[in-house]
Amino acid sequence: MIPASFDYTRAASLDDALELMAGADPSIRVLAGGQSLIPLMKLRLARPERLVDLGRVAELRGICDRDDGGLAIGALTTWAALLDDPRVLRYGALADALPVIGDVQVRNRGTIGGSLAHADPASDIAAPALALEMELVARSAARGPRVIPASEFFLGPFATALQPDEILVEVRLPPIAAGRVSAYRALPQPASGYPIAGVAVVLGGVNRSVIGVTGVGEQPYRAVETEQAVADGAPFADAAVSIAAGQRIASDIHADRDYRAAMAVVMTRRAVEAAVVRLG
Questions:
Q1: Distances (CA, A) of 168 to 76, 229, 274
Q2: What are the domain boundaries of the chain?
Q3: Class of residue 68 by CB neighbours under 10 A (exposed 0-12, middle 13-18, buried 19+)
Q4: Domain 7-53 - what CATH class?
Q5: DSSP assignment string, 36-64
Q6: pLDDT of residue 51
Q7: Are 52 and 76 in contact (CB under 8 A)?
Q8: How far is 137 from 148, CA to CA, in rounded Å?
Q9: How high is the pLDDT of residue 206?
Q10: Which residues contact 74 (CB under 8 A, 6 or more apart)?
Q11: CA distances from 156 to 82, 119, 239 (A)
């Protein structure tokens, strides 16, 4: 199909893009890699009146070391660039998720910031973002930068904590604590590749276990009940049964609620097993 008519503006810089967004007009959408937004526009499920194209804003690309030992990833950094950087691949759950995101074309064009801001309830990147406790940096012309923990970012299906005049500019990965390992496992829907259930876990060391889930509920979420059960001493195999507790489990032509919930338990156990192998 052909998208509905819209105006198009190519931002020359981040400041230029922020000024274009300053009016907080909900009819304006930001275009990053276009791998999610453009298909929705072709189906007329999204009808922005204007697109602000960030594609030429070089300052939003790249991966940098942070003073605290973590990483800062520009929002326009592609999946392919992340796959090619060995610093990123130290984060096991992220390393597991990157190769299964889309296909080669999507990974060459799609961006980490665009995917997070799109907030698909079945986004592969969402589970590692939650489990690794990433921080997302938003910026507006009026208020400057604002740091949003991943646990507070996803508000609903395709809904985030971003304000209408804000642009997601950076994704921050915390330093890897000694003895901490992570892994991500997902059951993909064969045609689309989107996870029917995807689970990322972080465990080891003296800190608590952290679990991020995607594809199961109406939005990606932290499995706090399972985390608490593990903290209280329950084996992961037992604690995993509560992985979908408190969620309105999704049901569609690919998987009903019972199957999706059951696969979430299976993926939790597989992710834990993979992390334990890495822990040695």
A1: 9, 34, 31
A2: 7-53, 58-173, 181-279
A3: exposed
A4: alpha beta
A5: THHHHHHTTS---SEEEE-TT-GGG--EE
A6: 87
A7: no
A8: 6
A9: 60
A10: 59, 60, 61, 62, 63, 113, 169, 170
A11: 26, 8, 25
CATH code, 58-173: 3.30.465.10
Strand partners, 149: 135
Domain 181-279 superfamily per CATH: CO dehydrogenase flavoprotein, C-terminal domain (3.30.390.50)
Handedness of CA 162, 163, 164, 169 (dihedral sign): negative
Lookup: tokens for 235: 């084996």
Q: What is the mean pLDDT of each run of 10 residues along the chain (280 residues)?
A: 86 94 84 86 86 92 96 98 94 97 91 95 97 97 96 96 96 92 96 94 82 97 94 89 94 94 97 91
Structure tokens given for 97: 């998720």
- The residue type of 274 is A
Q: Which residue shows structure tokens 């072709």? A: 42
